[in-house]
Design a protein that fits this description.
The chain is of the alpha/beta class. The protein folds into two domains: about 170 residues, ATPase, nucleotide binding domain (Nucleotidyltransferase, domain 5); about 180 residues, conserved archaeal protein q6m145 (Nucleotidyltransferase, domain 5), CATH 3.30.420. It contains twelve helices and 14 strands. The strands form three sheets. A six-stranded mixed β-sheet has the order 3-2-1-4-5-6, sandwiched between helices. The protein is globular, with a radius of gyration of 20 Å.
Amino acid sequence: MSPPERTHVIGWDIGGAHVKACLMQAGRVVDVAQWACPLWQGLAHLERVMHLARARWPQLRSAAHAITMTGEMTDLFEHREDGVRRIASLLAGAIATAGGLHFFGGEGLWCRAAEAGAHWERIASANWLATATHAAQCIAEGVLIDIGSTTTDLIAFRAGAVLGTGRSDVQRLASGSLVYHGVVRTPLCALGPRIAWQGREHNVMNEFFATAADVYRLTGELDPAHDLHPSADNAPKDLPSTRRRLARMIGLDARDAPAEDWTAFAHAWRERQLDELGSQLRRVMSAHRLADSAVVVSAGCGDFLAAEVVDRAGARLACKRYGSAVARVAPDAAPSAEAAARWAQVCAPSVAVAALFDREQR
């Protein structure tokens, strides 16, 4: 017989480009999902995701819901407070649940939808804090490297606590713990003013011609399940179209070189991103003087870069994956424990916020 419905917690990470969610039962992950949600185009996209979630999880109307967000940053909203209030209000209407909605503010703060506006500064963009706090509860000392579609979080932790005093995006941008680099949505012109092509450096065209997804599609590292947003030119995501977008970055056409040259070009862009992320990780590690015994916890759809980022930082730290080392996945998770662990890796903040809420309620 199944455990009572009250044992279910659903964790949410409401982003500006994706919604990630985790269904947890009796403290263990049983399912994880991600939906594209271009929130800057309107709240109707979030309403659509809520409809999909209700269809996927019948438990939604009886579960307790733990929620974190970054979507308040999109230019749909007048300011971040407006974003927090409107997202909270929409969720309260879309999730009528006996278990209640609980918005994560860090350091033990959970508030209801009606209180979200009053605590907007702590609720806004706190998803990284949920993931790092969860990792800190499981590992003595380390650094979280969460490489997502749009951003990278580099968060040090020790003795059960997240290190550093900066909590807002602006403070984290200053410290290096927030880097606006991801493996899907980042415009390639953001990776540097010059790039190597056939042994010679070229100025980069500062136009939205291509994104990081084009790079990692050509290197073969980007899982199609994580490649959810339209390409820069709204053209197909096949390899010929991907090469065409990369070629535009230096004023060429795909037919101007063989396919292997465009793959090498993709690797040149990859090197630029690794260099930047490695230098930012060095800043974070130096600031917090992490010990040689510290552990890297990797997460995000770009975690395939994590080990090399650590190398670029000049560190020799052991690496563990959030989905297997931190998330507690049920043996009977859907569609399998292995698949749930992979999605927990990608959707770590939703898993973390569910786990933190579940633990505090027990």
